[in-house]
Every structure is written in structure tokens, then in C-alpha cells.
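[09:14] KT: can someone run the structure on this one? pasting the chain below
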Amino acid sequence: CRSDLPADHPYVASSATNLAWLLYDTGRYAEAEPLFREAQTFYRLRRGTAHPKTAEPLRGLGQTALAKGDSDRAESLLREALSIFETALGSGHWSTAITESVLGECLTTLGRHAEAEQLLVKSYPIMKRLRGPRDRYVRAALKRIVGLYRAWRKPDEVDKYRALLTEPAPVPVERSAHESDGAPTGPGPLTQGPLR
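[09:31] RB: done, C-alpha cells below
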């Protein structure tokens, strides 16, 4: 793609973001991070700091920091992305909800359970409504809630949300990983597996 298009072409930034998510999914965080940074810089310059396209790779940077164990940096990046998504798209949008879910996971790792609970419990039903209970990203959000209550030592809540995970496994969905309703989120330390 880079050889056929000028460096300032939007497809280059989009391709960088998509490749970064692929690398992220395979645990290659050191390789994903500069691609997220490249795309985020491109979108900041071309679309502005308040555009959702700017927030998408910013969320990727936050998720990468979280996966690498840098929860403080992840929180800052995820809060910035969330602010952009909330302002540009509203609270009921997929990108806003998934960013809230990942930020909730981040706050769980920081031991800020009450803050995490607000975000996780708010975002899960929105995600479930938009994609259904069997979607793998919705199930990852549910696993984040279970992880929160496990870390918070609330076994009744763990059991309540874990029971929802016993629903049938996700079915493959014919959809782009980065369709217009937002890019998927990553597993981070609380949700194991190749989910974004």
C-alpha cells in the first residue's frame, strides 16, 4: 500500500490502523504501537483532535499500553479517546461503549474498582444491544466485568456475570473488524485470548 499511495493518503493511515490491530491481536505490541502512533498522528493533522478517526488509534495505543502493563499511561490515552468518542458520537455509540469497557478494565488493574464498575456495567448493555450477546467483543466486555468482580472479591457478582458467559459461544459474523461503528477492543490483562 505504501509504495502505491502517497504517505499522506487516508488509506495509508487506515491500513496502519488495521495492521496495528492485527499485530495487537497476535501479541506483537511493540510492532503495533508505532503503527497506532503513525495513524493517530495522521488523523490529528488531517481530521483534527476531536475527530473519531483520531480517537480510534488513540484507543489502540491505550490498549497496547494496558497489555504491556502500563496502566497509568493506558488510562490517560483511553480517557482522551473516550472524551473524543463521547463528544463526537454520543454515549450510545459502539466506539464510546467499547472504550468505556477497556477503560473499566484499566481502572480494575489500578485497583479503582468503583470507577471501573460504573464504566463496565454502563457499557456492557449498550454493546450487547448493538451486537448481541454472542458477539466476541461483547463477550470480552462481559469477561472484563467478571475480572472486575474477581479482583474486587465479590463472588456473588462473579457468579452472576459468569453465568452469562455460559450462553452459546460466539458465531462468526461477516463484518470488517473496523467497520464504521468502531474498532474492536483488546483483551488486556483481564481477558485472555485473541479478542480485540
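[09:33] KT: thanks! Helices lie at 10-25, 29-47, 52-67, 71-89, 94-109, 113-131, 136-151, 155-164.
[09:34] RB: yep, looked fine to me
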